[in-house]
Amino acid sequence: MPDFSDDIDKDGLSGALRRSAVKKHVAAIHVSGKLTLLQRKLSNVLLLNAYDTLTSQATHLIDARTLCMMIGYNSNDMDTLKGSLRGLAETVAEWDMLDAEGEQEWGVSSLLSYAKLKGGVCEYAYSPALADKLSDPKVFALINLNIQRRFTSGHALALYENCYRFVRTGSTGWWPLDTFRRLMGVADSAYYESYKHLNAKIIKPAVAEVNKTSNIVIRPEIRKRGRTVSDIRFLIEDNPQLAILDLDDGAGVRNAPVYGRLRALGVSDRLARQWVAEHGEDYVLAKMDYVAGQSGVQNPVRYLTAALKEDFKAEPASQTDVAPQIKARAAQLQIIRDLAAARSPTQRDADRRLFLNTLDDPAARADFERHGWMSALNAANIRAFWEDLAPSAFEVA
């Protein structure tokens, strides 16, 4: 059984998040630092994929090829994926916090309650209690995958995750050195009982990678008892050069009219903020107006997703005299739009990367980068790509 950081300092100096509105401390969820870099990335991808339906759905799905792509290993290496999923199911998360009524609550759960691979799809679930904690942004800081991909060290990613949750307070608070060793997954190593070794091999390299790679800059400080280092904390600031990698926290976006319209349409909070951050308010509003002007739209959120991605615009002329082959092409494009829109943001990003990797011709790559799935130069390859993912979708096209 892995060793977990279960020491909760009641004064908030060890693993606690401060709720300034009610002046209460809410302990962070502690997860073993023994997760490998691959497992830690996998855990974050699975969480992002499930985040919008954590408490409304018991199980979650993501195709295995997409999952492999997002965490950076061979999409045919199912043995590695199985091993990583097994590791998450065997890893424990522990929390100790005040609930909504002010009652102290302690809990423990495996990171995944189960996972299975079948037909090229990964199905997985969280325990209801852990899903409830992970869905609360006051308790758990969702890690941006654009930042996660840049990490090459498991210790650096573990340090980033444990510091990022304190970015608003500017400091992690003091961690006893034993607690810090557990967070980094080296508590069982006699070598790292020496602060000199811990600092040289773990702290300095991890700090350097966090500062170079992520949207925060951290600086360690130590506290001694006599001549022995007893505690460590990390001071945290935004990294102005890389802050664009992180999404807006919603404080400003949620007050904008476009946000209200998106939420009224049924768009999730996270996705609404992501769209505004990526495209800007004017562009999003223009596409919402476009969707509102279309008749017979059964799923406006899905249609809006495609409109934003592919830059849908009103047709300047009637389509009644379009040649049959053009009509067929239009029907095929609509199928591809619908298939792409049905994918999660994580899956869509992986789909584009996977398809780009199949293109050797620079002109074909440039056309796809410019036009995405609507690329005429890559029409045949695009259809073949989507037919591989959804063979029955094109039966009528």
TrEMBL record:
GO molecular function, one term: DNA-directed DNA polymerase activity
Pfam families: Rep3_C (PF21205), Rep3_N (PF01051)
One Gene Ontology term from the biological process aspect of the record: DNA replication initiation
Gene3D superfamilies per record: Winged helix-like DNA-binding domain superfamily/Winged helix DNA-binding domain
Residues in Initiator Rep protein WH1 domain copies: 22-163
Entry similarity comment: Belongs to the initiator RepB protein family.
Protein name (record): Initiator Rep protein WH1 domain-containing protein
Organism per entry: Ascidiaceihabitans donghaensis
